[in-house]
Amino acid sequence: MERMRADPILRPSYDAMPAATHIKPSLPETNYFSQQLEIHVARAVYGEVSAKEALRVVKENTRREAERFKNQMGL
After folding, report:
1. Under a CB-based contact definition with an 8 Å cutoff, are residues 62 and 32 in contact?
2. CB 53: neighbour CB atoms within 10 A?
3. More confident residue, 22 or 18
């Protein structure tokens, strides 16, 4: 945290942290993950799959999307 506070680029984020609640990190995969979570948790709620299976699918789909993004960006 000290490094973040000392970094002029990261300092605004550091300063905002105490007031920030219930926020999503700004990552390319965040929206995809949120969509997947909504879809697959609903499937579990309606009894189409188990909760464990729903979360497994979300994890795998999000991992795959993150890899796709990294490859697309040449990272």
Report:
1. yes
2. 13
3. 18
The structure tokens listed for 53 are 């299976």
Q: 71 is written with which tokens?
A: 């490859």
**What are 58-70's pLDDT values in tens digits?**
999 999 998 998 8
Nearest to 75 by CA among 30, 28, 7: 28
Residue type, position 49, single letter:
V
The overall longest dimension of the chain from CA atoms, in Å, is 50
Q: Pull the structure tokens for residue 13.
A: 């984020």
Amino acid at 66: A
**pLDDT tens, 20-46?**
776 666 677 788 888 999 999 999 999
